[in-house]
Amino acid sequence: MSLQNFINDAISPWLNTEGVDNDIVLSSRIRLARNFEQVPFPTSGQEDALTKVLEYMEQEFDQQSYEDFKQFQLVKMNNLKPIEKRVLVEKHLISPELSDKDQTGAALISKNEQASVMVNEEDHLRIQLYYPGFELTKALEKAQELDNWFEDKIHYAFDENRGYLTSCPTNVGTGLRASVMMHLPALSMTNQMNNLIPEINKLGLVVRGIYGEGSEALGQLYQISNQITLGKSEEDIVEDLKSVVQQVIENERRARDWIMEQLGIQLEDRIFRSYGILSNCRIIQSKEAAKCLSDVRLGIDLGLIKNVSKTILNELMVLTQPAFLQQYAKKTLGPNERDVFRANLIRERLQLEN
Amino acid sequence: MNCQRCQEREATVHYTQVINGQKTEIHLCEQCAEQEGYMNFSNDNLSIHQLLTSMFPFDQNVNQKQSVQTTHRLTCDRCGTTYQEFRNRGKFGCSHCYLAFESYLNPIFRRVHSGNTKHVGKIPKRIGGNLHKQRELEQLQNNLQQLIHDEAFEEAAQVRDEIRQLKEDLNENKGGDA
């Protein structure tokens, strides 16, 4: 596989379109957890029954289309090579848990990769929709429509009091998890994230670094999502999340203005140094790569760097993860080899831009 | 940077620990991290389960022996999941488990969902008529309370009539498609 192809394939088509506020919110996601009424949940491990769910989904929905989501394709886990699964995981089309379910796991993926329905992960169906930028309302609306499309044929497990029944008590009710992926370099630089995260948690929302642990998010990428799924309507869950995200966006913009004003040439220096490192490095660790990528993306958003595409941060954050690198190299790499390989990959990718 | 423990290999695992505001950074190579228990990747799920099961308020305040005995015997008669298994794994086995373990669920849901135990969101179309109307009724009754509270009596009278109509519809449909 050539690098050019690989990169093209590693990025879902929908990510290349522009979205609202996409200088800060990279993507919005809606996930609905659903189960068949009469079938034990995947957590029960009753493979015969789960195989029937898989066969049903294949028979009814493989190669079908629903409005914008054309040509769903059912991909069975046991037909995939490890590297192919890994690619799907890194593109967030399937979860690592699903990729382990060789016998019964599958994903129903639309051609534009915007909709992906995991079959027999923790629940029978996990309907996921992605939109670029800050588009939670639209994503929810479309997810509901898609849900209705499935519901025309499938008898969902539903209880008047408890709502949609799920394997895990944390998803019961709406089965809805709404989330946004945000790039917050200025709030991080001005040390405001440590104050902001507990405040957001108090509102029943979860903030976590997308890569890295705890408050130390690699690449200044954060995911914010709802925690509560029971006792609130889908619309309220999304509205509550939106109002918090909106405030975070405003804070980040203010912080960006502030650092531009206060740091001026120093900020420019930092950004172009990072750009220089990425374009010229021969050995680079994932932590440094993430920091530099975040700087470069900020430089693009502030209009300082002009000839590099915005998606570079999303792309390279995925491509330079240790596990992904090894899959790409098709062999196990020691830590030092990994850093050399990562440096090569980043340099080549940046050259493609020019 | 070399590994703090063996001082030989390069440190590739970086661990930041914050206890009572005291931040400690630990830098280890993979081998040492595994030995020191910082890298139990295969057990990752377990910790989430533990976190979840620790939220389950079991057997406190109740005579412990007795409650363990009765919950032991509690089994979902459709999928065979026992209450004990549900408790350990933090996962239901099938939709029927919700009924089988019903009497233990409210405290769990309250903890996980900020005090909520009842669904108020989307209803599948097939569930149809009555439940949708029931929801509407609850909504109108809330509105009525608010209107009375705000002393908007004219509007309140309208809402009251709507409620009456809806109740009649519901009575007619009783035993219907719900």
UniProtKB/TrEMBL annotation, chain A:
InterPro entries: Arg_Kinase (IPR023660), ATP-guanido_PTrfase (IPR000749), ATP-guanido_PTrfase_AS (IPR022415), ATP-guanido_PTrfase_cat (IPR022414), Gln_synth/guanido_kin_cat_dom (IPR014746)
EC number annotated for this UniProt entry: 2.7.14.1
Any one biological process term the GO annotation gives: phosphocreatine biosynthetic process
Source taxon at top rank: Bacteria
Cellular component, GO, one term: extracellular space
UniProt-annotated binding residues for ATP: 27-31, 92, 126, 177-181, 208-213
Protein activity control: Appears to be allosterically activated by the binding of pArg-containing polypeptides to the pArg-binding pocket localized in the C-terminal domain of McsB.
Motif segment (RDXXRA motif of the pArg binding pocket involved in allosteric regulation): 338-343
Ranges of residues in domain Phosphagen kinase C-terminal: 24-255
Family: Belongs to the ATP:guanido phosphotransferase family.
Family matches, as NCBIfam families: PRK01059.1-4, PRK01059.1-5
The name this protein goes by in its record: Protein-arginine kinase
Originating organism: Aquisalibacillus elongatus
From TrEMBL, chain B:
Domain UVR: 134-169
PROSITE patterns: UVR (PS50151)
Keyword Kinase found: yes
Family annotation (Pfam families): UVR
Annotated GO MF terms: cadmium ion binding; cobalt ion binding; copper ion binding; kinase activity; zinc ion binding
Coiled coil: 130-173
GO BP annotations, alphabetical order: stress response to cadmium ion; stress response to copper ion
Keyword Ubl conjugation belongs to the record: no
Transmembrane intervals: none
InterPro entries: UVR_dom, UVR_dom_sf, YacH
Keywords in alphabetical order: Coiled coil, Kinase, Transferase
Protein name: Protein arginine kinase activator
